[in-house]
# Entry
Amino acid sequence: MNKRLDLSLYLVLDPILCGGINGMVETTKIAVANGVTAVQLRSEHEFSGKNWYYAALALKEALSDTHVPLFINDHVDIALAIDADGVHIGQSDLPVDVTRKLIGNNKWLGFSVANRQQLDEVSWQLVDYIGIGPIYPTTTKQDAAPAMGMPQLTQLVKLKQCPAVAIGGININNATAILQSGIEGIAVVSAICGQKNIQQATLSLLEKVQQAKNK
Amino acid sequence: MNKRLDLSLYLVLDPILCGGINGMVETTKIAVANGVTAVQLRSEHEFSGKNWYYAALALKEALSDTHVPLFINDHVDIALAIDADGVHIGQSDLPVDVTRKLIGNNKWLGFSVANRQQLDEVSWQLVDYIGIGPIYPTTTKQDAAPAMGMPQLTQLVKLKQCPAVAIGGININNATAILQSGIEGIAVVSAICGQKNIQQATLSLLEKVQQAKNK
# Structure
């Protein structure tokens, strides 16, 4: 099915937090059925190439009948191996130009930006979206940059030259304020992964997104 | 320059053990000038995608005027990004068939085998060589399988269907015995990386290799 690049409610999957690969696939199915618009596989833990491959394959299968694209974090080889819809890289990964060359023009490329300097250095013609964060302190990414807070988010949103999604400590309580910055979407990890009621967690976030978009 | 697949004296580079990327490049130049026939970049430590990329690029440049091929451990995307001569993968990496599809037929593919069962499962038509090990206990690979010792090495060498290189705890004292198994070459890490005299360490190992081949 054709995929759509809609950053509104972007789920970043942590396989461990989801209770393993099966739990992650189950989380994905429920979350996507209830409004998640993009999915990324990311693992901050020790996760072998084989695990990455089979986890990514399982997610691709789970999303095959949806318009929701699958992004692979950092591991360009895994994205190529399963023909993912996109790749998301950070400042310490393969350079953007090298990554674009590897994935070609038929996959989306997302790139993480943590401050003004990094934003000023973005090769806008090579990326499809940027992730801005962490907005608030996060417990799911060990090597995260310092939290930037709302004022800097608002500044970066004004300066960006492509769609963007905010990430880092985003939950039901701060989602509205973040979306009022004018950013296209919010990315969450623990606000969905590991929640007791995935459906309710997703629906609550979706409601915030829809309220913000209708304003 | 045309590369040759000669496993005789195969240097597996550990950037940390070499004192960083510059030290690793220096080690490589000296080792190759003194008889190393193949080089692999491997990092068992935390090493970002960016570090992998620039380390691999530097090694490729260092080997550009030689017949010595550069292999990249595990990270198929890095191998593609710098157009390395080959990839070496293990049992917990991307599957062999997936890796071969990603790298095509113009790069060599090495695959690690630690016991008889793994040897029996090798897709011989897809790999160019196998690494057999660890032969002896190793300090440079944390997730290494149990050391197999000489009797099992000898058995696996008899059963293999492609060239092979032995790895794991190999040094100047046990190199001759290992080569007497009939295996095509020896792979070393700490017998060269981090040695005070890289030239002497390499020449001593080369002498063992040449003695074994001339018998």
Q: What stands out?
A: Chain B touches chain A through 22 residues (CB under 8 Å). The longest strand of chain B covers residues 108-113.
